[in-house]
Amino acid sequence: MPGRRAAALCAAVLLTTAPAVTAAAPAAPTAPAPREAVSLTPESARAFTDDRVAALLEEYGAPGAAVTVVLGGERVATAAHGYADLAEGTPLDAEEHLFPTASVAKSFTAAAVLTLAGEGRLDLGEDVDTYLSEGDRLPGPPVTLHDLLTHTAGFAEAVEEQAPATLGETLRATAPERLFEPGEYTAYSNYGVALAGYVVEEVSGTPFEEYARENVFAPLGMDDTEFAQLADVRADRPLVTSHLADGTAVEDPHIGNVPAGTAVTTVGDMALFMEALLDGGRVDGEQALAPGVAEALVERRSGAHPATTGLGYGTYQRRAGESPVIGHGGDLTGLHTGYAVVPEIDAGVFVAVNGDDAAGANPMVDLRLAVLDAFVDTFAPQGYPAGAADPDADLGAYEGSYVTSRRAASGPARLVALFDNVTVRDAGDGTLSVRGALASDDRWLPVEEGVFVAENGADLLAFVERDGAVAAIATDMNPTSVYTRTGALASPSLHLVAAGAALLVLLTVLVPVQRSGTGFTLATRLALTGTALAAVAAVGLLVYAATDLAVAQVWLVEGSAALTVPMTVTGVLAAVSAALVGVCLARGLLRPFSRVHLPLAALAGLVLAAVGAVYGMVPLPF
């Protein structure tokens, strides 16, 4: 959800190692054929919720999970496993307990926007400034509600306001910069969806929470669902406790971007929502959502490439292909939710997990996703098209470095881009080598022009062209962002190599050697020693955050001084060291070895500080 998913993703990629070995090329096409589908019936649905989910809960080690399945307009299976609160030993009750939805709430917000649009009070293609007061209007090219609901407005990742404030105040305080032109690329944005909700509030003249309750939840019969701050809900309703991987309870966060993720719900209410999505907005045969709303939620409205997953309004495809799977996921610290509807079999599943997995929270591989994937793979399986190596193909046009489009424009949250990136190389045997912390495989085989399938069958990627040149990569696994191509000097891989080499050089000043000379040379060595120690502290704290997801989330979201002060000190001392080295050289105060060693060490400190500045660890006055 809200700004925490990017933080969690950064922590996850810090802990993930990209494949290091290229497998031998097979002569035959690859991509596993989909398994035979199990017929979804009330009986097989109950077996799934009762047995399969229980087994997955035990495997992943989360505190509790609740799940529900709808089929043919009815809720056919519901189950809860584990605990609502570990400290109290409270069993999880699927009928009674409420769950924070996190970003699943974006589907509700889109429904609210579409309801107003259906009444002719909003135009999805109109500049949103039309609906905002002068002080709230956006600088730059016009942005539409279509852009906001499909995450194509071009916003940088924004850190939301944590202090209590109105929705308008929160949006004004956290307005992000633009990284792309509207409609150019997908880049998931909590701010963008929150702004869409604010438009609803401004046009309807009703607080957003109230509008959603009266026009979305009440017609659907979702009586236990509302937009509200979690601490307020917990005061008088049975809201589950969120837990870290070690079982520690998580304090309820304040979420300023209300429409992006503050809703709470029950599995029963989510069953009603999924039934409406599958039946044109109808529940029990009665029209609940305004005509056209449900269809607009589940239809593909945007996508980087037709071969990969795309987005609807407030939803995204979990699987593309002939039988798309549509839904949304949500993440808070210690809380993970998700739903998926499969129109082809007229079915849907919702799951809520009130804790991180025992092995730690990885937003790309967790219990919530395991349940959703198991449901689809069991009842509506599908595979990717086969690929085959083409030794005669020239794949050099695809080579380069690509960085996630969901990235911050300033501050230490820019560290996400340092780790969430991929490097593409022509393997020389008619395949591509794709390396990165979140790459599904190292070896990718051509399917058609610009489209490749992972050799292990885990993902599909497609290259996006702009003006006749390769500009980005879209993957099937993640419809919420793309990887945009960077220049050689902007390559995160180059930055990591440069920083690593610079740190090694800088550490040599800590090696004891016979030192003598003037006060100037001693001051120079002391400055370089301080630079090295500050650099070690900066890297050490970064590594520490990488080993503790909860710490990484807090530090990244809050822009902790732990990520900025040590590297800033490194930069200041490196500049001082460089100046002192220059004086020593000009006065001839250094011995032959030091004439080479100390300038290199000073340069290494400056390189480290420069890399830190690029990724927001050194605040700059410009």
From TrEMBL:
Record-linked Pfam families: Beta-lactamase (PF00144)
UniProt keywords, alphabetically: Membrane, Signal, Transmembrane, Transmembrane helix
Keyword match Transmembrane helix: yes
Transmembrane segments: 494-513, 525-545, 565-586, 598-618
Keyword Cell membrane assigned: no
Signal peptide bounds: 1-23
The Beta-lactamase-related domain, residue ranges: 50-359
PANTHER family per the UniProt record, alphabetical: BETA-LACTAMASE-RELATED DOMAIN-CONTAINING PROTEIN (PTHR46825:SF9), D-ALANYL-D-ALANINE-CARBOXYPEPTIDASE/ENDOPEPTIDASE AMPH (PTHR46825)
Identification of the protein by name: CubicO group peptidase, beta-lactamase class C family
Gene source species: Nocardiopsis flavescens
